[in-house]
Specification:
The complex is a heterodimer of chains A (298) and B (317).
Chain A lengths: L1 H9 L2 H20 L2 H18 L1 H4 L32 H37 L1 H15 L3 H12 L3 H28 L2 H8 L4 H37 L11 H7 L8 H29 L4
Chain B lengths: L1 H28 L4 H5 L6 H11 L5 H13 L13 H36 L4 H15 L2 H15 L20 H34 L2 H9 L3 H30 L1 H7 L4 H10 L3 H29 L7
The chains are: A mainly alpha (298), B mainly alpha (317).
Chain lengths: 298, 317
């Protein structure tokens, strides 16, 4: 009697515990075995650390201009990566620039992930008229190529960090909402949702307990694939003069102001773009690895 | 088929109205009074009143939208503030230049993209496959405005083979299909082609791998068909999807060319948008966006319809 009493007390959490922990540890283990994922992860970690500790690491003041030291080549007298068109240290500006560039690239996707998932899950779970209303509105925004939409919005709103972030967020909400809607619609039809409904669970409970856990993973993987695009677009807006304003260092803006120097100091002029490229390719590779580790179909 | 066609066209109409409404809103989300944004800074009270009536700001929102939309449908997109010329005239001149560049870029991208994709799909997990995959990741990750600059540095600054900016020795007005003009297109078109190249390579690789894994290929092999014969079957099966992706990419390039056109001072819609933004020329901004977005919607429709028409496997009810 004693043994039979103690057994069922342990049994229920046995299949639950390892499975819920097992999925994410499995994903992590797969990622750790993937050399591409590790490489991309290390690069991104370095970039993030560089951005966080930039004020402590910069060899020179990134805002200190010097008329005498304008456009010096790579390796000039203590200026490891040369100087820009106003004589400011490139290395310091690239380091500090990582802060705004990463912030402007990642934030819109994060906000759009929250809002887009919310809208998509609502549309997918509610179905019917609500779904039609939401998804047709989304279709209109989806009818614009993303670059055009971003430029249209920030062009009308005017230059500035806040407006650029707002425009990019609006650009990324429709694709995320579409994915969220389609995943939610699939999950809604599953037997366990039907069972929960039959047992009297309300819509909020069903979404919180049964839907969210199953849809957030795929939506998140999709959202990570947008970060690379967002980095390129955010820097692109600053490149056009629609995002960050001088003298703040940001890679896209630096690339724009250095355009005049492509004949005198081509290597220095190309540096900020190389930083954008490295960041976006790392995000793309990591997102691809995450996708295959989680086995989410494209 | 005909029913599908009709339904698809009818479905596009609300999207187009939505897109138009969005473009209409652009002027209204601009900070400050919409009229103040449109008015030149030295406007007289007389002109202000005149424009107020012209744009209908004295009327209600829906009224304003429909009268604007009605004029837009007739090809009247208002007048540019900077130049005073009709927006429609400016936009259509620029669209031609952008279209020329985007078509060339799409063709280059499609050719090399499907070449890489085919090779990668045929020899999966070989070094060719890995190289092609790496290339397609590079293609979608590169900030194309930076790639444009790098190409200018290499081919214009160092090698001095090609001109860096502009559209021909005499500008774009006397465009001719000779080398003196075409050489101005080479760098922007190459830069632009990188994006569709990566995406098409990825799509074609997946398609080819998918087709080769199907049973009918084994059947063809068993029948004794040559490799070339099987290749023809693969092409035929992959073509509709690959062409559809190509069509959509052309649309993305039309809308996304602004950054590349800015780098190369190419006198297309991107260049026009850029100057509209900096002169706060909102009618020009609105008109250009409207035309480009409508182009994109119609292209989507065309791609969908053509794909249904050429691919017998798609049976839509």
């Amino acid at each position: 009697m004693n043994t039979t009493m103690s057994l069922p007390a342990k049994a229920p959490d046995l299949p639950l515990q390892p499975r819920s922990a097992g999925f994410w540890t499995g994903v992590l283990r797969k990622l750790m075995r993937d050399p591409v994922a590790i490489g991309a992860g290390i690069v991104l970690l370095i970039l993030v650390l560089m951005a966080i500790f930039a004020p402590l690491l910069t060899p020179h003041d990134p805002y200190q201009a010097s008329m005498l030291k304008r456009l010096k080549p790579i390796g000039f007298e203590g200026y490891v990566l040369g100087t820009d068109e106003l004589g400011r240290d490139m290395l310091s500006r690239l380091m500090v620039g990582a802060r705004l560039s990463l912030f402007m690239g990642i934030t819109p996707v994060l906000i759009a992930f929250v809002i887009g998932s919310g809208i998509g899950i609502l549309a997918g779970y509610a179905g019917g008229l609500v779904n039609t209303l939401i998804m047709r509105t989304i279709d209109v925004l989806y009818a614009f190529p993303s670059v055009l939409l971003a430029i249209a919005l920030s062009g009308a709103l005017g230059a500035g960090i806040g407006n650029a972030l707002l425009s990019l967020t609006i650009v990324f909400i429709p694709p995320i909402a579409r994915v969220a809607e389609s995943v939610t619609t699939q999950v809604r039809g599953r037997d366990y949702v039907e069972a929960a409904r039959a047992s009297g669970a309300g819509a909020v409970t069903i979404v919180r307990v049964h839907v969210l856990g199953n849809v957030l993973g795929p939506i998140f993987v999709y959202a990570t694939s947008l970060i690379a695009v967002s980095m390129i677009l955010a820097s692109g807006l600053s490149f056009l003069g629609l995002g960050v304003r001088p003298p703040e260092p940001e890679w896209g803006l630096m690339l724009n102001t250095l355009r005049t120097a492509i004949y005198t100091q081509p290597l220095v002029a190309a540096l900020p773009g190389a930083m954008i490229f490295i960041t976006s390719i790392s995000f793309n590779l990591l997102s691809d690895s995450l996708r295959s580790a989680m086995d989410v179909k494209a | 088929m005909l029913f599908y066609l009709l339904r698809r066209i009818v479905y596009t109409i609300p999207i187009m109205i939505g897109v138009a409404f969005f473009c209409f809103l652009l002027v209204h989300i601009a900070p400050g009074d919409p009229l103040a944004a449109i008015l030149p800074p030295d406007a007289t009270a007389d002109l202000q009143q005149q424009l107020m009536v012209l744009y209908g700001f004295d009327r209600s929102w829906p009224e304003q939208f429909f009268s604007w939309f009605w004029r837009a449908l007739q090809g009247d997109l208002g007048a540019s503030i900077a130049s005073g010329r009709p927006v429609a005239e400016e936009v259509f001149k620029a669209v031609g230049n952008t279209l020329m560049l985007a078509c060339l870029a799409t063709m280059i991208g499609f050719f090399f993209g499907s070449l890489f994709g085919f090779v990668a799909g045929y020899f999966r997990d070989s070094w060719v496959d890995r190289a092609a995959s790496a290339l397609s990741v590079l293609g979608v990750s590169v900030p194309h405005y930076w790639l444009g600059m790098v190409l200018v540095i290499i081919f214009s600054s160092w090698l001095m083979w090609l001109p860096a900016t502009g559209a021909g020795p005499g500008g774009s007005d006397d465009w001719k299909w000779d080398w003196a003009h075409i050489q101005f297109m080479v760098l922007p078109a190459l830069t632009m082609s990188v994006i569709p190249m990566g995406i098409i390579a990825r799509t074609v690789r997946a398609l080819v791998a998918d087709i080769l894994a199907q049973e009918f290929v084994v059947g063809l092999k068993a029948k004794g068909l040559t490799d070339f014969g099987i290749f023809a079957h693969v092409v035929k099966n992959a073509a509709p999807t690959a062409l559809a992706v190509m069509g959509l990419q052309l649309g993305y390039l039309l809308g996304g060319s602004i950054l590349i056109e800015t780098v190369f001072s190419w006198p297309g819609t991107g260049f026009l948008l850029n100057s509209a933004i900096f002169q706060r020329d909102l009618p020009l901004l609105q008109g250009t966006i409207l035309v480009l977005a409508m182009f994109f919607v119609l292209l989507n429709l065309l791609v969908d319809v053509l794909q249904t028409a050429i691919d017998p496997r798609i049976q839509r009810s």
